[in-house]
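Dear support,

We are seeing what looks like truncated structure output for some complexes. This example has two components. We would appreciate it if you could run it in full and send us the complete token output so we can diff it against ours.
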Amino acid sequence: LAKTTQPISMDSYEGQEVNITCSHNNIATNDYITWYQQFPSQGPRFIIQGYKTKVTNEVASLFIPADRKSSTLSLPRVSLSDTAVYYCLVGDGVTGGGNKLTFGTGTQLKVEL
Amino acid sequence: SQTIHQWPATLVQPVGSPLSLECTVEGTSNPNLYWYRQAAGRGLQLLFYSVGIGQISSEVPQNLSASRPQDRQFILSSKKLLLSDSGFYLCAWSTTMNSEAFFGQGTRLTVV
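Here is the complete output from our reference environment:
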């Protein structure tokens, strides 16, 4: 599993757009990029997954440049309830006996009024 | 729909006592199963993962063991708990075709 690097923490205010960047220089050809959100005392929750270019769903967008060595999770107009830890994972979406999901330290996002 | 059950939600155990945490998944077959531990204010540490019945991979040497007696059942055990085993334990499952994982509600273990 490719190693990822994220900022330890970020601060923002309600209504702002937040962009969290993850570096994964050793990403392999078969690796997908997945982001999770975790609130205190809860398990992580899937946010978005992508392979290249841009993916958008109802909660976030994921931007992946052509070289795929990084990715950016974009949260539009954050609210207080978006305060959480955000994890970036890269892993092989093709089974080879299953995939091992290794989480890094994540980015603690704090949203204030 | 798929669901994952993990119990108990909280547990206080004395040092040296045994441990058994159980996780079951419904609504899917042959899932990948995972056990994670999270210390206070820290990230998730992968403890064990399993790709099939009786197939367990251990990620870190430790005082814990895991078993998968049935396709959708994953058990985390210890014969003698240590203070350092305290933490938030999470069970998760994923399909074999992508890396999206679904987590249980977690067990808060305090070893005293």
